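Limitations
The structure tokens in this dataset are predictions for the assembled complex, not deposited experimental models. Users should treat interface geometry with appropriate caution, especially where small molecules or nucleic acid strands are included. An illustrative entry is reproduced here so readers can see what is and is not provided.
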Amino acid sequence: MPEISRDEVAHLAMLARIDLSDAELDHLAPQLSVILDSVASINGVAGDDVPPTSHAIPLTNVFREDVVVPGLTAEEALSGAPAVEDQRFSVPRILGEEA
Amino acid sequence: MTETLMAYDDVLAAYDPALGLEVHVELNTASKMFCGCPAEFGGEPNAGVCPTCLGLPGAMPVVNGKAVESAIRIGLALNCQIAEWCRFARKNYFYPDMPKNFQTSQYDEPIAFDGWMDVDVDGETFRVEIERAHMEEDTGKSLHVGGATGRIHGADHSLVDYNRAGIPLIEIVTRPILGAGERAPEVARAYVAQLRELIVALGVSEARMDQGNLRADVNLSLSPKGSGVLGTRTETKNVNSFRSVERAVRYEMQRHAAILSGGGSILQETRHWHEDTGITTSGRAKSDAEDYRYFPEPDLVPVAPSREWVEELRGTLPENPTARRARLQAEWGFSDLEMRDTVGAGALGLVEETIAAGAAPQAARKWWLGELARRSNEDGVDLVDLPITPTDVARVQALVDEKVVNDKLARQVLEGVLAGEGTPDEVVEKRGLAVVSDDGALGAAVDKAIAANPDVADKIRDGKVAAAGALIGAVMKEMRGQADAGRVRELILEKLTV
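Predicted assembly:
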């Protein structure tokens, strides 16, 4: 059964840009372990003859015509943004990385 | 920070370079990769977006069939295998340029793989092996404000325009290119230039590097000479011209060598290329950031191109580049050296289009590899990025052929077109550049020149026709260069000989 370590949770939180305190890590790491264990119980059901599945329906090649269809206006697009400047989404300073 | 560099010859004495190139090609489809928004960038900010490319909850992507077709055609043109079945994957990362918090890409199942392209470098052929070409989507465009010159350091916040998010991209990845030795920088440049030519011939992208339609990332590592062990690589981004590709490879070779020879080790990292200073600077270390937690995209069904479709698309491919070069050389009557220079300058397509627009092959070659090549060097831009079209160049040559301008004035016409003064005809008109071939005006200038140079005139009267050059020069000076030299000569001889 998979076990997720506190360090792994800290790493995932960093990747997801979620700032977790030590107390939150202590609290969440065991919970995530339980969730992973529960999901892993599927392994007990699927035999070696069942390939990993990503899509439930055996469908391929669903394509769209290359045609422009109207989307949102800029006003609509920005209506849910917490902050807007110059008709653009305003986001906090990007964390210590180059664009 | 100034890096220490090793002299290029010393680098080659001690190390073998290994190159790798990743080229992103923005397709010229009408709509985006997974939604019907326009695949155009640069209009009114955030006016070409919808719930899908904004990553709003519940929005469902659908693949653009035309983009898949373009991907397959690119794969076939690069002699790749086309996957019988492949999936999209989510590349998870949290950065505001992708509002979904992942980029839809392909991971271990690219649509095209195991290909090659033969690259001509000064008449020698290098076979560049293609590892894969996969489909993905472009990201939004961030503008950093509050800091200096739009750079991220010191910026308070960033402003994001998602018009570009979701435009179809094809990423073409080479296998490590070994054995290029001292020519590694030229091989890299030639590969990108000839790949661009192929993309243009396929008609699948505007392929302008200065507009970001075609973007190159350069991977480079060094290994101690003869060891055959690949060293640690760096990946240099933002390399936006053929010229910069060559310069960036050379710079990284010299930088790596200086570090390695001093007993240091290369940090595996992203580097940023700076066009203005010609150096690279450290971006981010790759170790942590490269953890993208890829998984198959559940919202898109797999792509399984039928073999019939693939063969049908193979039938639409343009002539292969090697055969094309051979055919054009024969058609144009270029020597091997002329052809090599044309290909090397990235001017093959430009010369071809100029000839198609009516210019003679040698005239087309002369302008692109002469005056215009000089300008592109001076301005530090590739020929294709000069603000002049093959049609303009053909028209300039036509003006010469029609004796409206001479060669010298033609250069001023080119200068005017490059300066944005309009078409060649408009420049001639605005700058008053047309040569005078009207006998009245020329005759007066010829008479004046004869009167001013009686000794020269006597020589011509005595049959020394070669002396006419001095009088022609005087007339041209009088007419400020705007005289038809051939007609001037005729007039001088008419007046002085029987």
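Some entries come with short summary sentences. For this one: The radius of gyration of chain A is 22 Å.
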